[in-house]
Design a protein that fits this description.
heterodimer; A: five-stranded antiparallel beta sheet; 11 strands; 0% helix; globular; B: mainly beta; seven-stranded mixed beta sheet; four-stranded antiparallel beta sheet
Chain lengths: 112, 115
């Protein structure tokens, strides 16, 4: 049972372009939506996060857009750089404590 | 420095063998988690623990076992009952309370291969 659906599975973008990754969720009790970045052979690390009372959050070149009525949120990577090549996971926090449910991941490749 | 340490980095298991993956944290986090990562399937939760001497099954607990005898440690045993154990295993820790962000810290993972 996948409660957070992420798309696309993979993405190729030219340097300087915009990478867009989308996530959809079903559980309206989710109250916190982080994005994680993972480089090969490493554990994921928190990139940026948003709460459902906010429609957009920007940190540097990374922006989360959140649509509560559609139960969707997305990550935009502006001016993509080769160093952004990684796997990105969206996640959502449910009712029980601090447990996160992760999406399936998106492998992003930024070509120079 | 505070962090979470997984060992070993690479592990090879023979058919029918049990193996144990180590996870230690010095972040004073209450909660610890084990995830399995397979290509194209994201992070799937195996077990999690909110507090010492208590743990809960995640989505794919069959063939795995855990213990939480100390706050700092949450070892995962991959038993012979797990028929397809080859994967990348990630341990994480976090506060259990919901104040602030999720505060998840991940280890660098253990890659397990059946030989």
């Amino acid at each position: 049972q996948q409660q957070v659906k992420q798309s696309p599975q993979s993405l190729i973008v030219q340097k300087g372009g915009i990478s867009i990754i989308n996530c959809a969720y079903e559980n309206t009790a989710f109250d916190y939506f982080p994005w994680y970045q993972q480089f090969p052979g490493k554990g994921p690390a928190l990139l940026i996060a948003i709460r459902p009372d906010v429609s957009e959050k920007k940190e540097g070149r990374f922006t989360i857009s959140f649509n509560k009525s559609a139960k969707q949120f997305s990550l935009h990577i502006m001016d993509s750089q080769p160093g952004d090549s990684a796997t990105y996971f969206c996640a959502a926090r449910g009712e029980a404590g601090n447990k996160l449910t992760f999406g399936g991941g998106t492998r992003v490749l930024v070509k120079p | 420095d505070g962090g979470i340490t997984q060992s070993p980095k690479y592990l090879f298991r023979k058919e029918g063998q049990n193996v144990t993956l180590s996870c230690e944290q010095n972040l004073n986090h209450d909660a610890m988690y084990w995830y399995r990562q397979d290509p194209g399937q994201g992070l799937r939760l195996i077990y999690y623990s909110q507090i010492v001497n208590d743990f809960q099954k995640g989505d794919i607990a069959e063939g795995y076992s855990v213990s939480r005898e100390k706050k700092e440690s949450f070892p995962l045993t991959v038993t012979s009952a797990q028929k397809n154990p080859t994967a990348f295993y990630l341990c994480a820790s976090s506060p259990w309370d919901r104040v602030g962000g999720d505060g998840y810290t991940f280890g660098s993972g253990t890659r397990l291969t059946v030989v």
